[in-house]
Amino acid sequence: MDCTRDYCVKDISLAPEGEKKIDWVSRFMPVLQSIRKDFEKEKPFKGLKIATCLHLEMKTAFLLLTLKAGGAEVSATASNPLSTQDDVVAALAKNGVKVYAIRGENREEYYENMHKALDIKPNILIDDGADMVSTVLKERQELIENIWGASEETTTGVIRLRAMEKDGVLRFPIIAVNDSYTKYLFDNRYGTGQSTWDGILRSTNLLIAGKNVVVVGYGWCGRGIAMRAKGLGATVIVVEVDPIRALEARMDGFLVMSMNEAAKVGDIFVTSTGDINCIRREHFEVMKDGVIMANAGHFDVEISKPDLESLAVEINNPRPHITEYKLKDGRRLYLLAEGRLVNLAAADGHPAEIMDMSFALQAMAAKYIRDNHEKLENRVYVLPREIDEMVARIKLKAMGIEIEQLTEEQKKYLESWEHGT
């Protein structure tokens, strides 16, 4: 372990390998490249401090270096103990980011590093899962007077933050980046859809075609997971509590069942709900031998590990990222990545082209907070539509796609109420 006042990483000598990774993904992130060029010229964050709690892998690193290029002092800590890439954090440390994260750190170390990242006394927070905001509100209230606002990356975090707003405990404004169109329509659906299966396939090296895949939750992440499972040849079963989403899943061509029913027939289970104990004891008790379970939600609570451990007579690790629970009757149930985010714990997370848009939004959210913090209230906001459209236009241009433009006549028609039948 290499630790100084400015960083704490596993091995600083890993930096060259991390730099190669960051350079590779940056080539496929044209929107963030464009924003970085603007930031380098304008220095919008000169004199400001930005603390981040994110999945510390190569795409995130390019975001952090973009913020630094904009003049910010940047600190970083992990939003998940198993998503950290040690070579990438070493590269960040070498490039002037105050980073405190080691893959596999325990809960005590996780929060110890969180506090180190907060010690810069930030003006802006960038969070993924709302742990950093929560820590400030509960344990580091002396920092609040300096904080202009925060942005949140993921669905789970936004749910927590809206609960804070409802309870009246928010002390600074929040930008729900997750709720921007160019985030959830692409990151949650196409990003999670591909990267979840990447993690499952890397861990197991098993065939998906012909299997019954149970997708628990049919939000945007669940839609993406189900869509990709179907493409891989699986029979897809959706478990959902929302009647409208359940109906949508059925009309999208998927079977819809309760978890009690699905538990009996599923071969692979993937949770993506943001809620606790979606798969639990009564479901484990009726599952087939050899079932594989993975989680695509932010926290490791969707598949009940305490219930698995209480039912098991033997626990083994047959392959990296696989925990085998042998039950009294001889059945074996397999949990991937300790029930944590399988796409980041067992793979490299979302593709660079997807995170290009999500992290472009994060960069612009920080700038939006800088420009508007004095008039924002202590509540949860969504970025203005024009920022969403800016990101989409840059992305389309990079893809070589030209879209149609409205004529003046068409604009006038759409603004008028006088034309009828």
UniProtKB/TrEMBL annotation:
SUPFAM superfamilies: Formate/glycerate dehydrogenase catalytic domain-like (SSF52283), NAD(P)-binding Rossmann-fold domains (SSF51735). Keywords: Cytoplasm, Hydrolase, NAD, One-carbon metabolism. Gene3D superfamilies: Adenosylhomocysteinase-like, NAD(P)-binding Rossmann-like Domain. Coiled coil: none annotated. GO terms for cellular component: cytosol. Binds 1 NAD(+) per subunit. NAD(+) binds at residues 154-156, 188, 217-224, 240, 296-298, 343, 350. Residues 188-349 form the S-adenosyl-L-homocysteine hydrolase NAD binding domain. One of its GO terms (biological process) is one-carbon metabolic process. It is found in: Cytoplasm. Substrate binds at residues 128, 153, 183, 187. CDD domains: SAHH. It comes from the Archaea. Its EC number is 3.13.2.1. The keyword Hydrolase applies. One of its GO terms (molecular function) is adenosylhomocysteinase activity. Pathway: Amino-acid biosynthesis; L-homocysteine biosynthesis; L-homocysteine from S-adenosyl-L-homocysteine: step 1/1. PROSITE patterns: ADOHCYASE_1, ADOHCYASE_2. It holds the Pfam family AdoHcyase. The keyword Hydrolase applies. It catalyses: S-adenosyl-L-homocysteine + H2O = L-homocysteine + adenosine. Its cofactor is NAD(+). Belongs to the adenosylhomocysteinase family. May play a key role in the regulation of the intracellular concentration of adenosylhomocysteine. PANTHER family: ADENOSYLHOMOCYSTEINASE. This is Adenosylhomocysteinase. The gene is ahcY.
